[in-house]
Structure of Spermidine/putrescine import ATP-binding protein PotA:
Amino acid sequence: MRRTPQPQRDYAPWTDPAAVPLVRFESVTKRFGDFVAVDELSLDIYRREFFALLGPSGCGKTTLLRMLAGFETPTEGRVLLDGEDVSRLPPYRRPVNMMFQSYALFPHMTVAANIAFGLRQDGMPKPEIKTRVDEMLELVQLGPFAHRKPHQLSGGQRQRVALARSLAKKPKLLLLDEPLGALDKKLREKTQFELMDLQYELGLTFVIVTHDQEEAMTVSDRIGVMNQGKLIQVAPPGEIYEFPATRYVADFIGDVTLIEARVTGTAEGETHLSRLGAGADDAPLLCRPGNGAAAAGDAVAVAIRPEKVRISKQKPEDAAVNAVSGQVWDIGYFGDFSIYHVRLADGTTVKAQEPNQSRLAAREITWEDTVWLSWAPEAGVVLTG
Ligand SMILES: Nc1ncnc2c1ncn2[C@@H]1O[C@H](COP(=O)(O)OP(=O)(O)OP(=O)(O)O)[C@@H](O)[C@H]1O
């Protein structure tokens, strides 16, 4: 679907204190009886942003989206759209469209009729509907399929019809609830890129709900990680991955090892730590940049991504890296890389990811080997929460 090269995205209105958000959740709480589905949540989303709400099942993502669309009313707090309080406006009075998890198309209608449906309901004149439908068909590259019925399409094509239908009214804001849930992995990846291109080309604001962290990382400008009705961290994907705010975020996004440790001192952006359960001979750990909130004596976790950990038979000579030794407990072979699970003496399992640059037969490290794991002080993040 891509037609023009997409420039490097350097769009970051959330860093500009003067930027006016398109969407503002102001201390929004939603209760269902005694159950708190969304808990005093505040969040700003900006025009032309692709925002992903990510979290485990039941954390309140869909409820938040439904409050934005107008299908639910906040119990407390306000939802603002373009500065206007829309908390109590019905869905049809909002410049918002929502594409649902089950993007049910009308089975008896053709692709074109499905796309035209909302426009007809709005009373748009026929010639204008035709022009708009053609434009949408072209956008999702389904022109030749205009007269087919949904059952004559593949899953991915149906998905694109649903997208075209949600886009037809050119909503300021499109909300997508697990839009790619029904697709297989390959098609899902392809459609992710198509979604990004569409959003970018049309200059729209997308808010997507997903529990697939890879999807959120791929498509979005910023991710909001939710747990139990609260937003735990809101940041661009790279920042969430490299600088998770809490153990929960570190563990939820990507693969990670959390090493329990105690802070022994902090100085000039460096945090010195001793690993809990470390033997008398174990070297102290060092993390950089330091976490400002950690003070000497604090119990913390050091989060390390497996791809930042090197594995070797010999102790690394470089004294500037952190090094621990253990025994290979498990090896996961993924073709292009392998993940080694290495058990330290105290039972902690540390994961190391190594690219498979040589063939299997040449692989040097195997089960039960005693190995050294090492990582740079920059690779670990000290987490207090
Ligand atoms: N109408 C309702 N009445 C009672 N409880 C509800 C209602 N809607 C949602 N809930 C509850 O609120 C919580 C949050 O639901 P929500 O659908 O927002 O979660 P989610 O994060 O979108 O989950 P999933 O990824 O499974 O869709 C859940 O525990 C759910 O059971």
